[in-house]
Amino acid sequence: MATAVPIHVSFDADKVKALKDEIQRAYVPPNPLLSSKPGDLGIDVGLLASLKDDFVQRWSYDALQKRINTYPNYLVTFNDISGFDPLSIHFVHAKSTRSDAIPLLLLHGWPGTFFDFHKVIDPLVNPPAGVPAFHVVIPSLPGFFLSSHPTNVGWTILHTARVMNRLMFDVLGYKKYGGQGGDWGSYILRLIGSLYPEEAPVLHFNMFRCPAPKDEDENTLSPAEQNLMNRRATFAKTGAGYLDIQSTKPFTIGLAIASSPFATLIYIGEKFYSWSDPEKLDPMDLLDTVALYHLSGSFSTSVLIYHQSAELRSELVMDTEKWRIKSKIGYTNFPYEIGGAPRSYISAAAPLVFYNERTSGGHFAALDNPTGLVEDLQSLFGQNW
């Protein structure tokens, strides 16, 4: 049986210095290349200049390292995955002192990392009396941060879902657990909810892609749901180009962006600012994310998920019967989400028992509305566990 080994996360000082030196030397055009609305054609150069200054003058690797190691980090290696090389998974495991705490698997997506959840760990693990508490498990997905990626052809998020269940069930010994996820994490959770409903009976999503139910009348949507449909349409028209290149030529984009921390900042920064609540996004969260990708050398492997799981992702989006979710699910509609769905859509696709609309937050909900996410997790599990 695979055994988790405690680790202390750190990176070589010379590598950290090289990152900041490269950022400092990077060129930012003094003016926009074309006259356009900020953000319409990609990252705004004024914003980029500000982010560069923040990276050089305000961002602290020591502070990031300290926050990462505030909670126990582990590596576990699975040597017995049929047809694949051994796979090492990095994860954080923060346990509550409460005897009634609920094991909770938190799954990130792209271009996020496990560290997306750092603001919600303490309020989930150490809540006030009378509120559900959680044992929090936060893995880095295969190919992200310190988790390895199989070099064999054929790995998909279906394999990842099985590994995540093994992590919770076999490695950590939990007999039952809940889950939360957005972006790719939401697709993996959907597979878990289809394959392992007894082990994972309650799941929460902040992204859920599914077709409209038959005879759906969009005139009955709430204002918040109409907003999310508009966000989806705008994203499909003007923001989804990265999906095509990462699904078809992941080596090209992966190696190009990974070659420079400034390129990583530009590429990921555009996503963060397009998909987040502009009133809530902390630029330090973006800079931490860029640093984690660059220092771990994982950007080029992180985008492989788009190529390897493209077909399965399409199945999950369009054919909710093939991978029918059997677990109870909850959903929170954050207004700046790009992949949301109205209540009626989700109800037709899964056993929806909780639906809430928030007035702030976006695709990276754990970063730009951690309080709202925690409250909704506590409500969902308090009512359904």
UniProtKB/TrEMBL annotation:
The keyword Hydrolase applies. GO terms for biological process: epoxide metabolic process. Keywords: Aromatic hydrocarbons catabolism, Hydrolase. Residues 6-117 form the Epoxide hydrolase N-terminal domain. It comes from the Eukaryota. InterPro entries: AB_hydrolase_fold (IPR029058), Epox_hydrolase-like (IPR000639), Epoxide_hydro_N (IPR010497), Epoxide_hydrolase (IPR016292). Gene3D superfamilies: alpha/beta hydrolase. GO terms for molecular function: epoxide hydrolase activity. The keyword Lyase does not apply. The active site is at residues 183, 306, 363. Belongs to the peptidase S33 family. This is Alpha/beta-hydrolase. It comes from Rickenella mellea. The lineage of its organism: Eukaryota, Fungi, Dikarya, Basidiomycota, Agaricomycotina.
